[in-house]
Structures are given as structure tokens and as C-alpha cells.
Specification:
Number of domains: 1
Strand order of the largest sheet: 3-2-1-4
Radius of gyration: 13 Å
Shape: globular
Helix content: 25-40%
Mean pLDDT: 89
Strand content: 15-25%
CATH superfamily: NAD(P)-binding Rossmann-like Domain
Low-confidence stretches: none
Distance between the termini: 21 Å
CATH architecture: 3-Layer(aba) Sandwich
Number of helices: 4
CATH topology: Rossmann fold
Length: about 90
Amino acid sequence: MSDREIKKIMVIGAVGQIGSELTMALREHYGNDNVVAVGRKTAPSDELKNSGPFEFADCNNKESIENLVKKYDIDTIHHLAAILSGSGEKNP
């Protein structure tokens, strides 16, 4: 899929170390409004919260994720919930 075909991106686990960095990089590349950050319970940083859409949702709840996909017309999901930085670096 080329950059021009991507409509909206969702990053699940956007409050974590890897997710927050990915979210900001994607927002820089695709535009703030095109990248929806999703966290479960941890409050986002001011930078993450104020730079584009942020939603709280539990990725184990299929309906809540489906509702966000419909609400924002998401076509690409990066699922980083529960990926620890050290483990992710050892086994990407």
C-alpha cells in the first residue's frame, strides 16, 4: 500500500514507549489528524494528547475497536499493546 492510499491509521498501545514514538513519527509523516492513538488506561503525554486524536479502548474488546475503526474510517492498524521495549528490540 503506498502512502497515498492510506486513509487513516490507528496505533493501539500508543501510550507505551514504542507506540508513542511510532505515533508521533506517523503523525509527522501522514498528518496529525490521520493517526489515531489508542491507549487502555494510562494517561497520554501532553504531546501525544494534543497532537492528534486520542481514544481510550481495551484491545480485548472487539466491539470497542470496531467502533473506533468505523468512527475514524481506519484502514491500517499498528497493534503494539503489551510490547515491551527490551523484548521488542530482541525479537521484533
